[in-house]
Design goal:
With 311 residues, this protein is α/β, with parallel strands linked by helices. It has helices spanning 5-17, 20-27, 31-45, 61-85, 103-110, 126-134, 199-207, 221-229, 277-291, and strands spanning 50-53, 56-59, 91-95, 118-120, 140-143, 153-168, 188-191, 212-215, 234-239, 250-254, 259-269, 301-302.
């Protein structure tokens, strides 16, 4: 029997996500197209692989038996393509990070001498990207890593980025040249999602006694800053090097004593390094050294607990 890899990939992604909508979004296709691919695979195999119920999607007994072989089929296909493309093939790398624009770092590394060609994917969250790396759907991921991570992954710290506070120009602290994090105790933290999904912001709020927070729609940086401009008690955290859109009514202030650092890391599958990964790691290490990305002083800086090893 000849298997259509597109239908196999549709089944595997849906089996991992347990949700047709999320699986379709991750594959960059419509939910209708995804359903048709899974149905076509089930028809060719003559068995039902997935069942829908009120809780989402679950594997049938046949689907559970088929899944390991389907995953290996996709990995074999990816290896075949990599062998054909050879050293000129780009690495597929996905990014995530709720303090915006992880592609800034990836783009800077991509222009470094001897850096391999990269094919950045759309942003995901850490669990989704990690699962995609484990299952061989992408070569690597880049973003903030925090436990728990799935077994079978290796990660390397690449960058520690200072974080600034952004406030409305009507905020009582707007005229300061620098601020301590504990001075924000009576302000309202603006976050792009519930804090339960945003590890760094949740740990910052806990460490510095920020009791009030507001979830704003995650429509991008400019809309978030516009919302912040209208709140004289609000604040947001952003990487110090992020390029601001032209939004009136907000100002960025450095945080000191301590300076929060946002940790960016590369992850890949242990023991199954894709072609050109070594070149990417080398380019990351070189760029980090040239830009002093890994400087850390525990007397001056703050990292959440359980950050990746600084070695």
């Amino acid at each position: 029997m000849d298997l259509d890899l597109a239908t196999v990939r549709a089944f595997v992604r849906t089996a991992h996500e347990r949700h047709f909508g999320r699986a379709a979004a991750n594959l960059g296709i419509t939910q209708q197209a995804l359903s048709k691919r899974v149905a076509r695979l089930e028809s060719s195999l003559g068995v039902r692989l997935l069942d829908r119920d009120q809780h989402g999607v679950r594997l049938t007994e046949a689907g559970a038996r088929f899944l390991p072989g389907a995953e290996e089929t996709l990995r074999a296909g990816d290896r075949a393509v990599a062998a054909l493309v050879g050293e000129h093939g780009p690495l597929h790398i996905d990014v995530w990070g709720h303090l915006f624009a992880p592609l800034r770092t990836v783009a800077q590394v991509a222009t470094a001498p001897a850096a391999p060609p990269l094919r950045p994917g759309h942003g995901r969250d850490l669990p989704t990207a990690a699962a995609a790396v484990v299952h061989g759907e992408i070569d690597a991921g880049f973003g903030r890593v925090h436990p728990p991570l799935p077994d079978g992954l290796t990660h390397r710290l690449v960058r520690l980025e200072p974080v600034d506070v952004v406030v409305s120009t009507d905020h009582r602290l707007a005229g300061a040249t620098s601020l301590r994090p504990d001075q924000l105790r009576d302000s309202v933290l603006h976050a792009p999602a519930d804090l339960g999904r945003l590890d760094f912001l949740a740990r910052f709020a806990e460490r510095f006694d920020i009791s009030e927070h507001l979830t704003t729609p995650n429509l991008g940086l400019a809309p978030m800053l516009s919302t912040l401009a209208a709140d004289p008690r609000g604040f947001a955290l952003l990487p110090a090097d992020v390029e601001f859109p032209e939004v009136p009514g907000v100002t960025a202030i450095p945080l000191v004593d301590p300076t929060p650092l946002y940790a960016w890391s590369l992850i890949w599958r242990t023991g199954a390094e894709p072609p050109l990964l070594e070149a990417l790691v080398t380019a990351l290490v070189r760029t980090a050294g040239e830009n002093r990305w890994l400087e850390y002083d525990p007397a001056r800086d703050w990292l959440p607990t359980q950050e990746p090893t600084l070695a």
